[in-house]
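Internal QA ticket QA-208
Title: Verify multi-chain structure generation after dependency bump
Assignee: T.L.

Test input:
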Amino acid sequence: MSERVVVDPITRIEGHLRIEAKMDGDRIAEAYSAGTMVRGIEVILRGRDPRDAWAFAQRICGVCTLVHGLASIRSVENALNYPIPPNAQLIRNLMNGAQYVHDHVMHFYHLHALDWVDVVSALKADPKATSELAQSISSYSKSSPGYFSDIQKKVKTFVESGQLGIFANGYWGHPAYKLPPEANLMAVAHYLEALSWQRDVAKLHAIFGGKNPHPNFLVGGVACPIDLNSDSAINAKRLAQVQEIINKMQMFVDQVYIPDLLAIAGFYKDWGARGEGLGNFLTFGDFPEKGMDDPSSFLIPAGAILNRDLSTIHDVDMNAADEIQEYVSHSWYDYDAGKGQGLHPYDGETNLNYSGPTPPYEQLDVEQSYSWLKSPRWKGNAMEVGPLARVLMLYASGNEQAKELVNYTLSTLDVPVDALFSTLGRTAARGLETKIIGDMMQTWHDNLVANIKAGDTKTFNEQLWDPSTWPSEARGVGFMEAPRGGLAHWIVIENGTIKNYQAVVPSTWNAGPRDQNGQPGAYEAALQDNHTLHDPKQPIEILRTIHSFDPCIACAVHVTDPDGEELIKVKVR
Amino acid sequence: MSKDETLGEALRRQGVTRRGFLKFCAATASMMALPPSMVPVIAAALESARRPSVIWLSFQECTGCTESLTRSHSPTVEGLIFDSISLDYHHTLQAASGSAAEAARETAMEENHGKYILVVDGSIPTDNPGYSTIAGISNRDMLEEAAKGAAAIVSVGTCAAFGGIPAAKPNPTGAVSVSDLVHDKPIINVPGCPPIPVVITGVLAHYLTFGTIPELDDLKRPKAYYGKSIHDRCYRRPFYDKGLFAETFDDEGARKGWCLYKLGCKGPTTYNACATVKWNEGTSFPIESGHPCLGCSEPGFWDGGSFYSAISTPTEDIPKAAVYAVGAGAAAGVALGAMNRAKKQKSVDAHEKVTIDDLDKEK
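Actual output:
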């Protein structure tokens, strides 16, 4: 009988994720991804004021804080045909863009880096050589031998205390760590720098949304007014603050994140040959220049890529009943007509039915249901969403900057194009899109300033704010590209309240379990691609590939419906 | 730092000057609204302490509370982790996964039995143990086991403190708060969705500095941060008193920073430090950025009716007047302001809690 490797909890992610792997010798033969926590936020949303929904939906996740808020207000606006002022669109782009830059940098340093960086090895580094290394890859100012020596002292004192805290029981010294001590020390220094940097750039959300995490949103526009003659609105001082934050973002991405990413990746080129997974990629599109109704103005285009074929971008229709469907064959839910069928979110039904082992348990029965995640499919295909999908879509659709960045990365690392389809490719793509979106922040800010200069300060459209102006029935879909991938919320409004609410989120696409045909989800497929474990008790290889997706499991867990009532059919106009 | 070395010794060995250390203590004292005479007390306490073990458990949560922790400018999360506490278990930040992570938790619980601080974010489902598990263990079992050896429990966020969004109607998983399950340990509630970053770290700093839990109100919230309503400390309060309200978003009143009461602001019934401490190093807070307060640190705020419906004020004699004031507009607002001044001291002294549900009943 094959050995089963269980990793639970998967840490340095959002939420509760468990991986079980059936081994064939030291090689992963079958992998199973299980979300182990459920709350039922979509059920909680029923009966509420649709204008309130964003606040509930946003609490689906506090790491991707804001993305569910944005998808939610877009769903209401789509349902009501509710236009928003151009300034509100630009401010939303700035807020989502800031989320990308903030989230991706934190993911790289605080969630992913310790898979590649050996903190303890940093103690052996020569600060002077570290300084030389840092200066050879970047013009970042904090690069003196004294600076690295101070960081090293801090780490040394910490390690010698015998109280290792969050660094306790890491797989330090594992042969899979390939960085020289100097590169480790540089990365540890930037781990700390990034913690400090992210606090400052999160302020952009506080300026427009009052706070971060969980900034405020508003159906019909944004809540912050613009008035150059007011001390309580977006004024010249606030705009200058935003500009400074954008400068800080771009500086850190250009001088720290991207150089570190390329330097570290150079030692792990073998990870460009494993962890591909599905080879199918999906985007919904986002960052409109002219509003959500004009997809041709999106920075990131929508589409599907199948079997690595970048020459064909398939159209995606989010309303077609036979395109996006969710399966529950291996999920702890029932469908009225049996677990085998797939349902479009319009027709979605979700009856909670935990049939797993009674806790405490050692092992899940992966032949039966084994996750609180559903299995979304596009035309029956399991799809990967997220940074790699977006960068491929930009590349395939001819975005010049994306092509330049991808080609530069491949030539710098001296790896073939195939290396894109891998654990390493996914991690690199996240960095490249951070650069693209960080650069776009300036354009959105410039456009906002230009609008104000031209006399347009409108941020809110009052036209449909009052529910008495709404039709008795309305339904719509709000979609977006969240940092972790394509996200969509479907809403049904009846007599001014929410009749039904459904969210299909990035980590459900990526982390979902097998479907009725036994087709694995993206995590599962990626782990089944060329993974051998050096030591099953220290499964760092599993962490590398799982973290390359940046899991967000609170997001991914779907509706619960304890009463088992049938959900209303949703039609998008 | 050797096992017996104190934090003060360690800091000096690291080259942190006495002056720099005292500056940190002064900043901490100021943040906790303590007089300057307390600075030496804080310094002495910090210098003599080994870093206490902190075990952080995450249950039905969104990780917003952990994200908020990392946004704290003073103390910073890296400052806490390196200098003040030993964060021995924390899913989002810790290096180890799987059995290595669980071993870290078990070791910390054993070695620091009776002494560690247990921090919890997220609610706990009670309808079925399978609704939320970690390493195959139900949240409830893990909480009850970890609570046994804790010196104190800090419930961070409205979910851990009061049940929060998972407990909002119809509470699909039977979610409850920490204090619903644990009755024999000191519990500090630090609500908010999420709590203000420096409030999370400030409460930890208080415990580390004084070795006691801060003075709490009847909902177990530290009075230092939850003692006053947002309304009472709001910079827009003078407009409320004058009866000047934003009637809609982006109107003249909204642009001039008038009171957001009519747009549904829950500041009058929300006890939190947003209006004084503010968010993200004092950058702003919801009302300052034009959005009414949601009331996110209050129990049951999710079920208090629309976030955009005006509520009444928390003084028992005038809820009807307040409700009428919404309809009657500015003139009634002036009268209401005058009445409130007379009633204010009474409600502050008693620190009465009137929930939005109560106010709805009054209507």
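Spot checks passed. The two ends of chain A are 53 Å apart (CA to CA).
Status: verified.
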